[in-house]
Amino acid sequence: MPLWKIYHPVGAFTAEDKHAFAHKITKLYGMLPKFYVDVIFQEIPSDSFYIGGEPAGAFIRVSIEHIARTLSDDQKAWWLELTNEAIAPFVKDRGFNWEFHIDETPFDLWSVQGYRPPPADSEDEKRWARENKPSPRTHS
Amino acid sequence: MPLWKIYHPVGAFTAEDKHAFAHKITKLYGMLPKFYVDVIFQEIPSDSFYIGGEPAGAFIRVSIEHIARTLSDDQKAWWLELTNEAIAPFVKDRGFNWEFHIDETPFDLWSVQGYRPPPADSEDEKRWARENKPSPRTHS
Amino acid sequence: MPLWKIYHPVGAFTAEDKHAFAHKITKLYGMLPKFYVDVIFQEIPSDSFYIGGEPAGAFIRVSIEHIARTLSDDQKAWWLELTNEAIAPFVKDRGFNWEFHIDETPFDLWSVQGYRPPPADSEDEKRWARENKPSPRTHS
Questions:
Q1: Which of B111, B132, B140 is the mutation pick for testing C, counting most C CBs within 10 A?
Q2: Cross-chain residue pair A109–B76, CB shorter than 8 Å
Q3: Which residues of A100-114 are buried (b: 16+ CB within 10 A; e: fewer)?
Q4: How many CA atoms lie within 13 A of C58 on its CB side?
Q5: Do C104 and B108 make contact, defined as CB atoms within 8 angstroms?
Q6: What is the tens place of the pLDDT at every residue in A19-70?
Q7: C111 touches A80 (CB < 8 A)
Q8: A52 — phi, psi (to 5°)?
Q9: pTM (whole model) above 0.95
Q10: Contact A15 B92 (CB under 8 A)
Q11: What is the ipTM of this complex?
């Protein structure tokens, strides 16, 4: 469900950094089957990345789509804070500037390995989480 | 309208594959002017693509935006199935794992070649489909 | 807030072009703090970019996300026109075909440099605009 796209300067992260960062993001979504968490890192050359009309420099822009869950109004500030904490070691603590936003897209327009994912917190979702892979539903 | 972004491992598709895949996607949207269907393939290096915190491997992630049409609730499961069928020869049948989701974005915030696209199934849309290019509206 | 992704043919723009284009986009959003305007240029190889199942050729596809503001219904046509005017020198006037769409994503799921951006037209937003950087809110 969450699809993270992390736009970053060339060379900002090593392969090990990216692996660790993706692992950290996956832990942030501990309530979900792990394999729901997709992370794509994309290097943006310095002459292709601008903020306010000027080269973005040491800036990381994260674009997040949530599909499996919708945040209620009173969860939103809390979730932004959790997200900022989760990414800090890879972003703030390394001296990068950063920005992120989350979009929420329709649960019913989502398909994993040909399956429609089971409802939130259902028995089937728990099984998907346990087995860390999609499979036919066993509950209606 | 539909904008497909296909994130895939390096070397997953030849130029011929991509052409055929884009053609197949265009046929899926046979109710629309062909030129509404935009497909972007993007190679993701193996150290930049993660699922559940681990390298994604033989995984294809498709991100789809629909603009010209909105699916009604009773069309959604059917459309997901059609989409899975359309992509199977390029994805499932080649041994890739895959996931896709669709977002629906506002029709009224869309512009093609400087024109606002005509309403769904209107005379103007039929003409755009016939001519396979945008042009000024001839109906209000 | 606005995040622009500009998908373009390889070599369509020089670094100077991109800088000037990003500057023009920032001016389009003159009501916002400049640093809200993020622009990412992405080259798409000719064998990875399709319209209607055929190679896209001299085509530029712009994908825009608005976060800080929501357009009212009677502003939409006007805003599309302003956008078309702003990009024309870099797109239409150079002989490219083009298409863009805007999605509006939730204001409350947005974080800049660890801060939640202040409400539209608030004193804090005016200060952020003046200082061209985020900082703690001084008004509730």
A1: B111
A2: yes
A3: bbbbbbebebbbbbb
A4: 9
A5: no
A6: 999 999 999 999 999 999 999 999 999 999 999 999 999 999 999 999 999 9
A7: yes
A8: 55, 30
A9: yes
A10: no
A11: 0.97
